[in-house]
Design a protein that fits this description.
mainly alpha; globular
């Protein structure tokens, strides 16, 4: 169960990290810290406490607070059997049908992600489009519906985000999410990956133009990687260097230090500067403290993998050691990778490599 539920927590962390970037325009659906805490608290409920909440829900079926805590509990129990999965689906469908504008409804916790969710998925999809037909200009419903659909139907989600951008053209969030969908397509290894990366860069630059200083700071990481993956080396360098010199928000410091150095390292390696690339790899992990995303998802390993292929074992091992200071959830994985490198092997870094 631990592996499955950790994935959901990581999804929320990424969702929250996206929310705190704060472009100039207000969020379409405001992040609710109280709801986020409630759903995380729900994951810690005992079976007896969950049963007590179910009884309370029978007396107050419209109590969203109770349902949010039960949703968290259902997420934590999904891998324990079909009954838990069915309960999670029931709760998610209730939120879609009855509270389509709420933050929790568009969050990863209400998503139907697993291979056993197909029946609930069709019902959820029908409910979302019923809302959209009844209220086609409702921005909150557009946002939540697109967010829900984005994992299984990214093209449909993109069309909804485009519609939102047309209705709300001054809001950077629509372009930002369209950039993310294009970037995810590129990272999945699509045949037109470079073209998708260029589209992502275009969308992120649209969001940049609509954002104030705070929002632009939050977009630098996406801009730098999209430019690199689109083959726009000059832009990638500009955005990466900006991450290392401009710190309007301390909350982004660790992520900027990490990704700014990694992008510059990839550029150096592409130019044959292996020593510079190694220095950048170590600088990327030279952090006084991590961030919620780095502490959960962990560091990016693409540059480390490429350096290993060039025989730079000691540099990579030192990178692993430094990453251990901030990657709280990755100690076992770092130990496994260390053993592999010491044995002369290249680890399978999985999703820790962008592309």
């Amino acid at each position: 169960m631990r592996c499955f539920t950790t994935g959901w927590v990581r999804a929320l962390l990424a969702f929250m990290a996206f929310a705190v970037a704060e472009p100039a325009a207000a969020q379409v659906v405001a992040t609710s810290p109280d709801d986020a805490r409630a759903v995380l608290d729900g994951r810690k409920l005992s079976a007896g406490e969950a049963a007590e909440l179910e009884r309370a829900l029978e007396a107050a079926p419209d109590d969203i607070g109770i349902r949010i805590r039960l949703l968290g509990y259902a997420v934590a129990q999904r891998s324990d059997g079909s009954a838990a999965r069915r309960r999670h689906t029931e709760l998610s469908l209730w939120f879609i049908r009855n509270a389509p504008e709420e933050w929790i409804t568009g969050s990863p916790f209400a998503s139907l992600l697993g291979p056993r969710d197909e029946d609930g998925w069709e019902e959820a999809r029908e409910a979302w489009f019923a809302h959209l037909d009844a209220d086609p200009h409702n921005l909150a419903i557009l946002w939540n519906a697109a967010s829900f659909l984005s994992l299984k139907e990214p093209e449909t989600a993109a069309a909804l985000f485009e519609r939102g951008a047309g209705l709300d053209p001054a809001n950077a969030w629509w372009s930002m999410q369209l950039g993310r969908l294009a970037e995810q397509s590129a990272r999945r290894g699509a045949e037109n990956a470079t073209e998708r990366a260029r589209l992502a860069l275009e969308r992120y630059e649209e969001a940049w133009a609509l954002s104030d200083l705070s929002g632009r700071d939050g977009l630098l990481q996406e801009l730098a990687w999209a430019a690199f993956e689109a083959g726009e080396a000059a832009k990638a360098r500009e955005y990466a260097e900006a991450m290392l010199v401009d710190y309007p928000h301390e909350r982004n410091l660790a992520d900027h230090t990490h990704h700014g150095n990694l992008v510059l390292g990839r550029l150096a390696l592409a130019e044959g500067e292996i020593g510079e690339a190694g220095d950048r790899l170590l600088a990327a992990a030279n952090l006084e403290s991590g961030s919620p995303v780095l502490g959960s998802f962990g560091p990016e390993m693409g540059l480390a993998k490429l350096l290993l292929e060039r025989g730079e074992r000691e540099i990579v091992l030192e990178y692993f050691r430094r990453c251990g200071r901030f990657w709280e959830h990755g100690q076992d994985k770092l130990a496994e990778w260390t053993r592999a490198v010491e044995a002369g092997e290249t680890p399978d870094f999985g999703h820790s490599v962008r592309r």
